[in-house]
């Protein structure tokens, strides 16, 4: 699933005169995540969303452990709060499962654009839950983004309204996940957070997959399932690298390239082009998201 701006914890970037590498890694990350989403939709024609979920987290859990174990040993499990790690992992796997059900039933581009509403919803959470001050201009961006999302999932459009509301549930869950992530990054190592997220997700999906397993009928299906996990894990890693190479205010706008990549993937694999109103809504979500990020960055400067 796509990662909206600020969703991935990362170390602060070292001062640099050129942010080009961070931008390149961010664009590559979104291409990888778009490929993962499109591949998920393709393979879910013959297997269940829970199976895709299981493979996605299996790759992340094992891959992260293999990278960290030689360097840290058992210290890779060290955390300041196991409860917060478990909560974050449960939020992420819940979000991923809902996302796969949405991808199975709605176009990739429209789903990606809806998920990109997350930073705007997080702005509302920051005001009402974390008691942060939000400027009237940022509120305007939140309202504009919501209007854009409504155009994408409107009744009578190309997206089933019931699935559209499920996508908005993904957005809300992801916003809470981001808020928890923001709280945890004050004391937790980003790599350890990724490790716990992978293993919690794999454990939960393992409990679910017994009643949802459908044996793939070809080597191609097995390969596609592995590709989903590899592309998603690679995308998350590239995002961490991107945010370590350049400031978040520089990198974040380029994460919206995921909408463009998903549109191309949807056309290429499924012969789907969003209609005019959906395109308008997608553009409004992207515009409001980018502007909200710039307004926040300017206020913090």
Strand share of the residues?
under 5%
Radius of gyration: 18 Å
Class computed from helices, strands and strand pairing: mainly alpha
How many independent structural domains? 1
Low-confidence stretches: none
Determine the number of helices (DSSP H or I, runs of at least 4 residues).
Answer: 12
User: How many strands, what sense, and barrel or not for the largest sheet?
Assistant: none
User: What's the SSE pattern?
Assistant: HHHHHHHHHHHH
Quick check: average pLDDT? 85
How many individual β-strands?
0
Distance between the first and last residues' Cα: 31 Å
Helix content: over 70%
Shape: globular
Would you summarize the structure shown here?
The longest helix is centred in the C-terminal third of the chain and has 27 residues, at 219-245. The protein is an all-alpha fold and 301 residues long.
């Amino acid at each position: 699933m796509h990662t909206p701006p600020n969703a991935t914890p990362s170390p602060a970037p070292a001062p640099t005169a050129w942010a080009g590498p961070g931008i390149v890694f961010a664009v590559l990350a979104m291409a990888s995540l778009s490929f993962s989403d499109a591949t998920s939709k393709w393979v879910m024609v013959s297997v269940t969303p829970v199976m895709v979920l299981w493979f996605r987290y299996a790759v992340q859990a094992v891959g992260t452990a293999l990278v960290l174990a030689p360097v840290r040993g058992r210290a890779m499990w060290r955390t300041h709060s196991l409860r917060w790690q478990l909560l974050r992992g449960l939020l992420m796997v819940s979000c991923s499962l809902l996302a796969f059900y949405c991808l199975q039933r709605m176009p990739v581009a429209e789903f990606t654009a809806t998920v990109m509403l997350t930073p705007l919803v997080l702005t509302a959470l920051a005001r009402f839950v974390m008691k942060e001050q939000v400027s009237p201009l940022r509120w305007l961006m939140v309202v504009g983004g919501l209007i854009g999302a409504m155009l994408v999932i409107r009744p009578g459009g190309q997206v089933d309204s019931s699935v559209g509301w499920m996508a908005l549930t993904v957005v809300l869950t992801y916003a809470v996940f981001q808020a928890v992530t923001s709280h945890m990054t004050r004391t937790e190592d980003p790599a350890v957070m990724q490790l716990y997220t992978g293993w919690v997700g794999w454990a939960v999906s393992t409990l679910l997959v017994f009643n949802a397993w459908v044996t793939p009928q070809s080597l191609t299906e097995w390969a596609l399932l592995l590709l989903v996990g590899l592309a998603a894990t690679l995308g998350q890693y590239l995002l961490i690298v991107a945010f370590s190479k350049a400031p978040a205010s520089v990198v974040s706008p380029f994460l919206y390239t995921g909408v463009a990549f998903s549109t191309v993937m949807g056309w290429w694999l499924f012969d789907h082009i969003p209609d005019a109103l959906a395109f308008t809504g997608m553009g409004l979500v992207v515009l409001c998201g980018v502007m909200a990020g710039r307004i926040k960055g300017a206020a913090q400067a």
